[in-house]
Design goal:
Helix content is about 40%, strand content about 15%. It is α/β, with parallel strands linked by helices. The strands form four sheets. A seven-stranded mixed sheet has the order 2-10-9-8-5-3-4, sandwiched between helices. A three-stranded antiparallel sheet has the order 11-14-13, covered by helices on one side. Helix 11 runs parallel beside helix 13 and helix 11 packs antiparallel against helix 14. The two termini are about 35 Å apart. The chain binds pyridoxal-5'-phosphate (PLP). Pyridoxal-5'-phosphate binds next to helix 3.
Length: about 400
């Protein structure tokens, strides 16, 4: 009998109080108590992403891909030049969405496991008049963390807006939207935000709203159009009833609980916890002799780890690890899909979850025929957790 831990890069393990909030009777979307909860969640997005009241929050029913679609549908018009900083599968999805809305897209592509530097972006921005740069903060297909602050600065210097996919980073990796000059930052509920799947969360800068207001053409997506949603978000923040499309009431009640926990911990502590646990997992993986997809620790994410299978082991090991108590994910990047697996460690994750996951990974690897010495990974992981390495 096992109680496996869900340690994939989303959805993740959720706190019991968040799950209990999901089970409350569904309120009317215009019930004053719900209006207050939704209004609070909207205002709190600014505290999560570190931006002031001039930034516009949006919370929509849909997954992270809807957040991507919404950002692009409102900010890209036919013929707009977009530079996509490409660090993997999700960067390429963003490129596809930009093309769908008529953007003329250039990719600045890293080899799987590599990143793109601010100076590479600055050089490319000399080549054409780009209006928009997109960045995937953590590409979940490679575990690569990209330098959002540096690339945003390069984009600002060239007069381009910046959209950042923070789905696998928000409320985990360090992120300072206003200080870093990010125009739209977005995420989804089921990753480090710590709520079951179904909500798209976005925060837009005054410059992004200005670009949207100056559009020459209507937004092609009916559901995503900020023209429909901005009055709704303003009404909820102003504690007034409004309706365009029914919000995901139960999820928003749960979101409010989870955001409250995150803000009570404090963003600096949240960033530090993810850094520590991420380093601890990576130390355990390295101690077992496994490589990792990111080509340098300096650009490895802290919200997930992408270990390479050791020689003689393939994705079949994941069933053994699951039987040993941890549900992990297989590879996602098409070029290297069968060479690595993925461990998510974000949101409500604890040091004990991480130790249990490494222990299950060790046992699973042994079942798969890889002769790792029992406890080796745990010693390395524990060493980081107690601050001795
Ligand atoms: C998970 C993820 C997405 C997609 O989110 P869905 O909720 O699956 O639509 C987009 N970008 C990144 C970086 C992700 O990790």
């Amino acid at each position: 009998m096992t109680r496996p831990l869900l340690m994939i890069p989303g959805p993740v393990e959720f706190n019991d109080d968040v799950l209990a909030a999901m089970a409350l009777p569904t309120a009317s979307h215009v019930d004053p108590a719900f209006i207050a909860i939704f209004g609070q969640a909207l205002a709190d997005l600014r505290a999560l992403f570190l931006a002031d009241d001039s930034y516009q929050p949006l919370i929509l029913a849909g997954s992270g891909t809807l957040a991507m679609d919404t950002a692009v549908a409102n900010l890209v018009e036919a013929g707009d030049r977009v530079l996509v900083v490409d660090t993997g599968y999700f960067s390429q999805r963003l490129a596809a969405i930009c093309r769908r809305y008529g953007g003329v897209v250039d990719l600045l592509s890293a080899a799987p496991g590599d990143t793109i530097t601010p100076s590479q972006v600055a050089d490319q921005l000399q080549q054409a008049a780009y209006g928009l740069v997109t960045i995937t903060h953590v590409d979940t297909s490679t575990g690569v963390l990209t330098d959002v602050a540096g690339i945003s600065a390069a984009a600002k210097a060239a007069g381009a807006l910046v959209i950042v996919d923070g789905v696998c980073a928000a409320a985990g990796e360090e992120m300072r939207q206003q200080a870093w000059g990010v125009d739209v930052y977005f995420t989804a509920s089921q990753k480090a935000i710590g709520v079951p799947p179904g909500l798209a969360l976005l925060l837009a800068s005054p410059a992004a709203l200005g670009k949207w207001r100056a559009r020459r053409t209507p937004v092609a997506s009916y559901y995503s159009d900020w023209g429909e949603w901005l009055p709704i978000m303003a009404a909820y923040e102003g504690r007034r009833p409004a309706y365009f499309a029914t919000p995901a009431v139960n999820l928003i009640v749960a979101l409010n609980v989870s955001i409250h926990r995150i803000l009570a911990e404090g963003m600096e502590k949240v960033f530090a916890r993810h850094r520590l646990l991420g380093d601890a997992v990576k130390a355990g993986i390295a101690a077992m002799g496994l490589g990792q997809v990111p080509t340098h620790p300096a650009h490895a994410a802290h919200t997930l780890t992408c270990p390479r299978y050791p020689a003689g082991v393939d994705a079949g090991v994941l069933a053994h690890i699951r039987a040993a108590g941890a549900i992990l994910a297989g590879g996602l990047h098409p070029a290297i899909r069968n060479e690595y697996f993925r461990i998510g460690h974000m949101g409500a994750v604890t040091a004990n979850d991480v130790l249990a996951t490494l222990a299950a990974t060790e046992r699973g690897l042994r079942q798969a025929g890889y002769a790792v010495e029992p406890g080796l990974a745990l010693a390395a992981t524990q060493g980081v957790l107690v601050g001795e390495s």
